[in-house]
Amino acid sequence: MNRNSNTYTVIFAAVMVIVVAAVLAFTALSLRPIQAKNVEIEKKSQILRSINISSSQKDAEGLYDKYIVESFVVNATGEKVQGNAFTIEPKNEISKPEASRELPVFVADVDGSKKYILPMYGAGLWGPIWGYIAVDENGDTVYGAVFDHQGETAGLGAEITKAKFADQFQGKNLFHDGQFVSVAVLKSGQKVAGQDAVDAVSGGTITSEGVSNMLFDCLKPYQNFLKSLK
Amino acid sequence: MLSEKNKEIFLGPISKNNPVIVQVLGICSALAVTAQMMPALVMSLSLTAVLAFANVIISLMRNIIPNRIRIIVQLVVVAALVIIVDQVLKAFAFEVSKQLSVFVGLIITNCILMGRLEAFALGNKPWPSFLDGIGNGIGYSVILLIIAFFREFFGSGTVFGIQVIPDAFYEWGYANNGLFILPPMALIVAGCIIWIHRIKNPDMQE
Amino acid sequence: MEYLNLFVKSIFIDNMVFAYFLGMCSYLAVSKNVKTAFGLGLAVTFVLTVTLPVNYLLETKILRAGALTWLSEDFANVDLSFLSFIMFIAVIAAMVQIVEMVVEKFTPALYASLGIFLPLIAVNCAILGGSLFMQQRDFGNIGLASIYGFGSGIGWLLAIIGIAAIREKISYSDIPKPLKGLGITFIITGLMGIAFMSFLGIKL
Question: Is there a contact between A154 and B181 if contact means CB atoms under 8 Å apart?
Answer without folding.
Answer: yes
